[in-house]
Design a protein that fits this description.
Layout (H helix, E strand, L loop, with lengths): L1 H10 L12 E2 L2 E2 H5 L1 H20 L2 H31 L1 H4 L2 H25 L8 H28 L11
């Protein structure tokens, strides 16, 4: 994946002075405000899945389940704001790095929904190995897409007000 991301960054060499976010509150972009929650919650799911699986404990599985509910809900909210930014400005949607970020996060939300559906239909008990594996894949993906999001902000100035302007 690293080679793919490095190639995307090299291909997107156009420097922008700033591309403001489409969805803002008093000039502050909403997407970066929301993404911290699914990153933290879904990372917590993996932590509590490991505890539940290792200790064969339904106690830790309940923590994991509720973090998964919150992480998925906040992931959907962050995705809505991110989609508005992605489709709201062609300068964003034509960046390879933005498309990788978008696709990766769409996969994260879908896998989290699948993980949630599997758990909702199961009896209360410890976490299964398949749930733990899904959580691990989600954390790997969200780590990469979070890094891509940072690249867009700090290298391409996506979601930033252009220099010399005030909203």
């Amino acid at each position: 994946m690293s080679a793919l991301v490095n190639e995307a960054v090299r291909n997107d060499t156009r420097e922008y002075d700033g591309v403001p976010a489409t969805v803002t509150v008093k000039g502050h972009p909403v997407h970066p405000m929301l993404v911290n929650y699914p990153i933290a919650f879904l990372s917590g799911v993996l932590l509590f899945d490991i505890l539940s699986y290792a200790r064969d404990s339904s106690f830790w599985a309940s923590f994991s389940y509720w973090l998964l509910v919150g992480g998925t809900a906040m992931g959907v909210a962050a995705a809505a704001a991110g989609m508005a930014d992605f489709f709201g400005d062609r300068r964003i949607s034509r960046l390879t790095i933005a498309r990788l970020h978008f696709l990766g996060n769409a996969i994260v939300v879908c896998l989290s929904l699948v993980n949630l559906a599997l758990r909702m239909n199961a009896s209360a008990g410890p976490v299964s190995l398949s749930w733990l594996m899904l959580s691990a894949v989600v954390v790997l993906l969200i780590s990469g897409t979070g890094w891509l999001g940072g690249e867009m902000v700090y290298r391409h100035r996506i979601g930033m007000i252009p220099r010399g302007t005030h909203e």
